[in-house]
From TrEMBL:
Pfam families: UbiA (PF01040). GO terms for molecular function: prenyltransferase activity. The chain crosses the membrane at residues 78-99, 120-139, 145-163, 170-192, 204-225, 246-273, 279-300. It is found in: Membrane; Plastid, Chloroplast. This is Uncharacterized protein. It is a multi-pass membrane protein. GO terms for biological process: vitamin E biosynthetic process. Keywords: Chloroplast, Membrane, Plastid, Transferase, Transit peptide, Transmembrane, Transmembrane helix. Its main location: membrane.
Length: 331
C-alpha cells in the first residue's frame, strides 16, 4: 500500500503560504482600519453630532406639532436628509483641512492630513464625493428651494476656506458665515423640508423661531471661541482672529457672556409666553445650563488659561450646544 503520509517539505511549504496569507490579510485589515479612522477624524465628529442632533430635533418637533400626518415614508426621507447634511458637513470641514494643513500641523496635529495619515489627493476625492452625494440626495428628494439652500451652504463653506476668498481671515465675516450655516440655514432648512414632506406650507412656530434664534447666536459663540485653542498657530501664520487680537481671556469672557444672555433670554421667553413653551422644562433646564457655564468659566480662570483648559472649555461649549437640541423637542 502506498504511503499516505504527506511529504514534510510540502507541509512546511503549505504552512509558510498560510502564514503569508494571514500576514497579508492582517496587513490589509490594518490598513482599512487606519483609513476608516482617518476618514472619521477627517469628518470632525463633534460637528457631525451637532448637525445630526439639530436635524433630528427639528424633524421631531415638526412631527410632534402634526402627529396626525406622520407616516413611515417620512422615516426614509428623514434618513436621506440626514445623510445629505452629513455629506455637506463633511465637505465643509474637509475643504477647510485641505487649505489649513500648515496651521493644523501646529494647532491640530491629530487631524489626518496634518498627521500624514490621509493624503491631500485622498482628501480631495472625499470632499468631492461628499459634495456630489449631498447635492444628488437633496435634488432628488427635496425640490429646488431646499437644493438652493443646500448649495448656498456649500458655497459659504467654500469661500470661508478657499483662496482667493478665504474669508476666515476676516473675523466678523467668518463669524457670520458660521452662524448662518450652522444656525439659520440648518434649522430653517430642516423645518421647511419636514413641513413640505408633511404636505404643509411653511409657518414659523414659536418654539422653532426660538431655537433658530438661540442656535444662531450659539453658533456665533462657537465661531468666536473656536479660535481659542488655536492662538499659537494663528499667530505663526498671521491669521487674524479676535483671540489673537483681544486675547484668550477676553474672548472667553465674551463668549460666556453671550451664552449667558442666550440662557437668560430663553428663561424670559418661557416666563412671558407660557402658552407656547413648557415653563417647567425651559426655566430650570436653562438655569442649570447657565450655572454649568459659569462654573466652567471659573475653572478656566483658575487654570490660568492653559491650552488644555481652553480645549476643555471649548468642548464644554459644544456639549451645551448638543444639550440644547436634546431638550428642544420637550419644550
Amino acid at each position: 500500500m502506498a504511503d499516505l503520509a504527506e511529504d514534510p517539505r510540502v507541509s512546511l511549504s503549505r504552512q509558510a503560504c498560510s502564514k503569508a496569507d494571514a500576514a497579508g490579510s492582517s496587513t490589509l485589515t490594518t490598513k482599512l482600519s487606519e483609513f476608516r479612522d482617518s476618514c472619521w477624524r477627517f469628518l470632525r465628529p463633534h460637528t457631525i453630532r451637532g448637525t445630526a442632533l439639530g436635524s433630528i430635533a427639528l424633524v421631531a418637533k415638526a412631527l410632534m406639532e402634526n402627529p396626525n400626518l406622520i407616516n413611515w415614508w417620512l422615516t426614509f426621507k428623514a434618513f436621506y436628509g440626514l445623510a445629505a447634511l452629513i455629506c455637506g458637513n463633511g465637505y465643509i470641514v474637509g475643504i477647510n483641512q485641505i487649505y489649513d494643513i500648515g496651521i493644523d500641523k501646529v494647532n491640530k496635529p491629530y487631524l489626518p492630513i496634518a498627521a500624514g495619515d490621509l493624503s491631500v489627493q485622498s482628501a480631495w476625492i472625499l470632499v468631492l464625493l461628499f459634495a456630489a452625494a449631498g447635492l444628488l440626495i437633496v435634488a432628488w428628494n427635496f425640490g429646488p428651494f431646499i437644493t438652493s439652500l443646500y448649495c448656498l451652504g456649500l458655497f459659504l463653506g467654500t469661500i470661508y476656506s478657499v483662496p482667493p476668498f478665504r474669508l476666515k481671515r476676516f473675523p466678523v465675516v467668518a463669524f457670520l458665515i458660521i452662524a448662518t450655516v450652522r444656525g439659520f440655514l440648518l434649522n430653517f432648512g430642516v423645518y421647511y423640508a419636514t413641513r413640505a414632506a408633511l404636505g404643509l406650507s411653511f409657518k414659523w412656530s414659536a418654539p422653532v423661531t426660538f431655537i433658530t434664534a438661540f442656535v444662531t447666536l450659539f453658533a456665533l459663540v462657537i465661531a468666536i471661541t473656536k479660535d481659542l485653542p488655536d492662538v499659537e498657530g494663528d499667530r505663526k501664520f498671521q491669521i487674524s482672529t479676535l483671540a489673537t487680537k483681544l486675547g484668550v481671556r477676553n474672548i472667553a469672557f465674551l463668549g460666556s457672556g453671550l451664552l449667558l444672555a442666550n440662557y437668560l433670554g430663553a428663561i424670559l421667553v418661557a416666563i412671558y409666553m407660557p402658552e407656547a413653551f413648557r415653563r417647567s422644562i425651559m426655566v430650570p433646564a436653562h438655569a442649570l445650563l447657565a450655572l454649568g457655564l459659569i462654573f466652567q468659566a471659573w475653572i478656566l480662570e483658575q487654570a490660568k488659561y492653559t491650552k488644555e483648559a481652553i480645549s476643555q472649555f471649548y468642548r464644554f461649549i459644544w456639549n451645551l450646544f448638543y444639550t440644547e437640541y436634546i431638550i428642544f423637542p420637550l419644550i
